[in-house]
């Protein structure tokens, strides 16, 4: 493949990956909307659409493998393709966590929420902001911005800890609330994991730009 054609293939793949990321970002918000409003129809639509998101990830992955196998890229080209491959995998994992919010919504049925959702929607807002910035850092090949995104995961972890402590208080005061508390805790855990996946994406952006494998924001205590 001539160099110009190779560059075009890389650019097209990058555009497709960014489009995929935008769709995944939207699904995170939809998952939270379904839980907050107890919208079973939306939850079921999210679950059904997950298969399409999975298929898109496999298509992106296949394109990366094809370029690796047919072009034998070196140096920066190799890092960029490998990074796109791994970012696609992380995006699909994020979509799975969003799908879990939908599954929790359906599992809860008509059971009333234990408490008003305040910190959990905030976690989702932060995660969407993180993902948007991570995708922009990828688009611009900006390692410094990627590191700034990873640092935002501290806010996600702190919100999760706060939710965990509050829900444990409900359980201690009234053990009959354990099921409703655990549903919300599982939801919060999924969103917290989204933050970790986005941090992994940021690490891949740094690798593509610098050639260094760095573990960003290593303190992730729960």
Please give a handful of descriptors for the protein shown:
mainly alpha; 7 helices; single chain; Methane Monooxygenase Hydroxylase, Chain G, domain 1; 222 residues
Query: According to CATH, what is the topology?
Result: Methane Monooxygenase Hydroxylase, Chain G, domain 1
Mean pLDDT: 93
Structurally, how many domains make up the residues?
1
Which blocks of ≥5 consecutive residues have pLDDT under 50? none
State the major sheet: none
Question: What is the N-to-C order of secondary-structure elements (H for helix, E for strand)?
Answer: HHHHHHH
Helix content: over 70%
- Distinct helical segment count: 7
Tell me how many strands there are.
0
Judged by helices, strands and strand pairing, the structural class is: mainly alpha
Shape descriptor reads: elongated
Instruction: Give the C-level CATH assignment.
Output: Mainly Alpha
Query: From the 3D coordinates, which CATH architecture would you assign?
Result: Up-down Bundle
Query: Distance between termini?
Result: 48 Å
**Content of β-strand:** under 5%
The CATH H-level homologous superfamily: Phosphate transport system protein phou homolog 2, domain 2
State Rg.
Answer: 19 Å
What does this protein structure show overall?
It is a single chain. 84% of the residues lie in helices and 0% in strands. The protein contains seven helices and no strands. It has 222 residues and is mainly alpha-helical. It has a single domain, classed as Up-down Bundle (Methane Monooxygenase Hydroxylase, Chain G, domain 1), CATH 1.20.58. The protein is elongated and about 65 Å long.
């Amino acid at each position: 493949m001539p160099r110009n054609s190779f560059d075009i293939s890389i650019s097209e793949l990058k555009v497709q990956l960014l489009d995929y990321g935008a769709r995944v970002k939207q699904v995170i918000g939809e998952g939270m909307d379904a839980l907050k409003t107890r919208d079973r129809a939306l939850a079921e639509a999210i679950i059904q659409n997950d298969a399409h998101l999975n298929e898109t990830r496999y298509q992106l992955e296949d394109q990366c493998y094809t370029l690796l196998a047919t072009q034998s890229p070196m140096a920066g080209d190799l890092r960029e393709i490998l990074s796109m491959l791994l970012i696609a995998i992380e995006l699909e994992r994020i979509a799975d966590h969003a799908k879990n919010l939908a599954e929790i919504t359906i599992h809860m049925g008509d059971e009333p929420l234990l408490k008003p959702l305040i910190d959990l929607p905030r976690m989702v807002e932060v995660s969407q902001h993180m993902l948007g910035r991570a995708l922009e850092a990828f688009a611009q090949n900006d390692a410094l911005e990627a590191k700034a995104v990873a640092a935002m995961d501290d806010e996600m972890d702190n919100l999760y800890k706060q939710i965990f402590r509050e829900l444990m208080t409900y359980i201690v005061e009234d053990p009959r609330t354990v099921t409703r508390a655990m549903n919300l805790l599982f939801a919060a855990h999924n969103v917290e994991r989204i933050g970790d996946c986005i941090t992994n994406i940021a690490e891949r952006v740094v690798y593509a730009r610098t050639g260094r494998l760095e573990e960003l924001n290593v303190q992730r205590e729960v």
